[in-house]
Amino acid sequence: MSFQHYEMAAGRWYTFTLAEQMGNIGSEVHRAIMWRGRNEEKNFQNAFERALELFDLTLDDPRWNAPRKREIGRAREVFCDALWGDNEYKTNLASLDNYFLQFGIAARAAV
Questions:
Q1: Domain ranges of the chain
Q2: Can you spell out the DSSP letters for the chain?
Q3: What is the pTM of this model?
Q4: Span 10-61, pLDDT tens digits
Q5: Burial letters for 88-109: b for 16+ Cβ neighbours within 10 Å, e otherwise?
C-alpha cells in the first residue's frame, strides 16, 4: 500500500494521543473543505485522501477500544458523506471543521 504520510504509517502515528491524531485528521479535513470551496479539485482530492489515510491509521491503532473506534468511524463516514457523498446527514461543513478543531485545541492544551 502506498502512503502519503510515510513516517506516520511506519509507526510514528501510534505514539500520538487520540487528541493529537484527531487534530491532525482535522488539519486535512480543514484543507479538504478549504480547497473544495475554492474549486481546486486536485488539491481537494489530495487533502481528502490524506484525511482518509489518517482516519484509517487511527482506526488501526490497537490502543483504541470499540466505542472510540465507533466514534472515529462515524466521523470518517460523516466526512466522506459531506464532501464526497450526497450529504445524507445534512452536515454543515463549518460544524465538521469545528468538531475536529476541538481535538487540536485539546492536544495543544496538553503540551
A1: 6-109
A2: ---SSHHHHTTGGGGS-HHHHHHHHHHHHHHHHHHHHTT-HHHHHHHHHHHHHHHHHHHT-TTS-HHHHHHHHHHHHHHHHHHTS--TT---HHHHHHHHHHHHHHHHHT-
A3: 0.90
A4: 688 999 999 999 999 999 999 999 999 999 999 999 999 999 999 999 999 9
A5: eeebebeebeebbeebbeebee
